TrEMBL record:
InterPro entries: Pantoate_ligase, Pantoate_ligase_C, Rossmann-like_a/b/a_fold. Belongs to the pantothenate synthetase family. One of its GO terms (cellular component) is cytosol. One of its GO terms (biological process) is pantothenate biosynthetic process. It comes from the Bacteria. Keywords: ATP-binding, Cytoplasm, Ligase, Nucleotide-binding, Pantothenate biosynthesis. The gene is panC. The keyword Cytoplasm applies. Its EC number is 6.3.2.1. Catalyzes the condensation of pantoate with beta-alanine in an ATP-dependent reaction via a pantoyl-adenylate intermediate. This is Pantothenate synthetase.
Length: 282
């Protein structure tokens, strides 16, 4: 497995693979890899001959006061995990390589509608940063397919719409959320939690499951269910950012006759912001 830091090296190597007729799968990440990321690499390697994993903590998607500076950067560990998972190539560019002219004048990709609300409301500019860097990664790697986790449910919806609307020739594949034994969704940010916070964190998934059970029991008073869920997060010691019951495709408030409903949650434990979701088919 090779690691490259420059676009020039990346393009040279990928040209060689393409000349051999190999298909290319891309797994975009911000590094500090765990089993969630590795499941994406495995999925990409089942569907493509070559897997490129990018590791780039993208400043454009972080808001002021967020954790850009403290986000864990663990390239050597990440390389070991990727090698063991059968990854072909790591692309780990510097910020200057990706934004040589700085961020202020950077062309942006805006994906309307589906970026609104939920994390888009709490993190203004976040999905523009994600859509822009994913477009750039698609242009740099020119993959046949790219794999993203369902843990970041709204992000996946944004990327699917962007790819469709802009006719990008990339197949976007979603992969299920990998969880700890107690249900907590694996996330690099779990590493910020103190022991006490880590004990509280499974309440996020437990609240999703409890709400899903209420829906299965026939409840359709969604606003009341959202309030109950926020109250139970607060009771557990979290500070809910939002708990929204939405149509799985539009991400707009669910209606009682919707077939697929997704529960979206974001909540703070201390300064750590955790997100999770659960889809209920009816
Ligand atoms: N538990 C998980 N299961 C499946 N996919 C995941 C999981 N966690 C992250 N991913 C996916 O991995 C890709 C890279 O995500 P990222 O590097 O932000 O990881 P993360 O652990 O979610 O970090 P963060 O704590 O910053 O949200 C995204 O497509 C994301 O959805
Ligand atoms: C898709 C992504 C790698 C873009 O920076 C990031 O948002 C992430 O890790 O989910
Ligand atoms: N996992 C999404 C990337 C972010 O939180 O910035």
């Amino acid at each position: 497995m090779r690691t490259v830091h420059s676009l020039k090296e990346l393009r040279t190597i990928l040209r060689g693979y393409r000349q051999q007729g190999k298909t290319i799968g891309l797994v975009p990440t911000m590094g500090n890899l765990h089993e969630g990321h590795i499941s994406l690499v495995r999925k990409a390697s089942e569907a493509a001959d070559i897997v490129v994993t990018s590791i780039f903590v993208n400043p454009m998607q972080f808001g002021a006061g967020e954790d850009l500076d403290t986000y864990p950067r663990t390239l050597a560990d990440d390389q070991e995990k990727l090698e063991a998972a059968g990854n072909t190539l790591v692309f780990a560019p510097t910020v200057d390589e990706i934004y040589p002219e700085g961020l202020a004048s950077q062309t942006q990709v805006v994906v309307p509608d589906v970026s609104d609300g939920h994390c888009g409301a709490s993190r203004p500019g976040h999905f523009e940063g994600v859509a822009t860097v994913v477009t750039m990664l698609f242009n740099m790697v020119q993959p046949d397919l790219a794999v993203f986790g369902e843990k970041d449910f709204q992000q996946l919806a944004v990327i699917r719409k962007m790819t469709r609307d802009l006719m990008m020739p990339v197949e976007v594949i979603g992969a299920p959320t990998v969880r700890e034994d107690d249900g907590l969704a694996k996330s690099s940010r779990n590493g910020y939690l103190s022991d006490k916070e880590r004990q509280i964190a499974p309440a996020v998934y437990q609240t999703l499951q409890a709400t899903a059970r209420k829906l299965s029991d026939g409840r359709a008073d969604f606003e009341a269910l959202e309030q109950e869920a926020e109250a139970s997060l607060t009771q557990a010691g979290l500070r809910p950012d939002y708990f929204n019951i939405v149509n799985s495709l539009t991400l707009k408030p669910a209606k009682p006759d919707d077939n697929d409903i997704t529960l979206l949650v974001a909540a703070f434990l201390g300064t750590t912001r955790l997100i999770d979701n659960l889809t209920v088919s009816r």
